[in-house]
Specification:
transmembrane helix; membrane; Probable membrane transporter protein; TSUP/Inactive_protease-like; 0% strand; 82% helix; mainly alpha; 260 residues
């Protein structure tokens, strides 16, 4: 019975990801911890593999459609990959399986609340960034590149530690930094392309630590694949203005539950 419930969880998360592009790590990890009683480290490690596999499929599609800005992906990776490796070493050193469970749950709760805020206020942030970009008469490519690398460091740390951030936070960072350079499709494609190697490295680190449940992963993937397809079709019917605030409330609730 539990296996089918895991598949159902994958289906529901897949639908939300297909509709909004957000929610893979943000929803799956707290769902596994709060509803299924999975240990925080195992939930995060398994979810990183879930994200790496599902986003690899989406990233391939976006690459074929030329929706990936590899210049930006490279800048993000300069910061995120070393940060992910360093964070993984810290998790291993602290003992994720035995001593780090409470700390990981707390970190996940904090990141979920922050992600909820970014998700809820994404549209106003986008309008503000575009207005500033239009009014600006000078470009600071070196400063923007440095800011992109710094964002990569933040994402690498958060994703490896909590499996959350590559979608909602990553897309918001890109939206603020490159409001005119990236169209909506390129924003999503670039964000996904960067998330794949980042999630894979985080997943490999958790695999070495021993915090990945591949049986659970298989059931999640069985549900998520049709879910993503269905969600993509529903996105043409259900307005994002309705779905995104609801998603933000769910993320905030899950984050608070993990903190209290």
């Amino acid at each position: 019975m539990l296996d089918w419930l895991n598949g159902l969880a994958g289906l529901l998360v897949g639908i939300i990801v297909g509709m909004t592009g957000v929610g893979g790590g943000s929803l799956m990890s707290p769902l596994l911890i709060l509803l299924f009683g999975v240990a925080p480290a195992t939930a995060i490690g398994t979810d990183l593999w879930f994200a790496a596999i599902t986003k690899a499929v989406g990233g391939t599609v976006h690459h074929r459609q030329q929706n990936v800005d590899f210049g930006i992906v490279g800048l993000l990776a300069i910061g995120s990959i070393p940060a992910a490796i360093l964070t993984g070493f810290v998790i291993w050193w602290r003992g994720a399986q035995t001593h780090g469970g409470a700390s990981l749950a707390t970190a996940l709760g904090i990141v979920l609340v922050v992600t909820a805020a970014f998700t809820f206020f994404r549209a106003p942030l986008a309008r503000r960034a575009m207005a500033l970009s239009i009014r600006s008469h000078r470009a600071f490519p070196a400063l923007k590149s440095l800011a992109t690398i710094l964002c990569g460091v933040i994402l690498g740390t958060l994703v490896t530690l909590t499996s959350v951030g590559a979608g909602a936070l990553g897309a918001t960072f890109l939206l603020v930094l490159y409001p005119r350079r990236l169209s909506l499709s390129k924003l999503v494609g670039t964000d996904i392309a960067h998330a794949v190697p980042l999630a894979l490295i985080g997943g490999l680190i958790h695999l070495m630590i021993g915090t990945v449940d591949f049986g659970l992963l298989a059931m999640l993937l069985i549900g998520s694949i049709p879910g993503i397809i269905l969600g993509s079709r529903l996105s043409l019917i259900v307005p994002e203005a309705v779905v995104r605030p609801l998603l933000a409330l769910i993320l905030a609730f899950a984050g608070i539950k993990l903190l209290v």
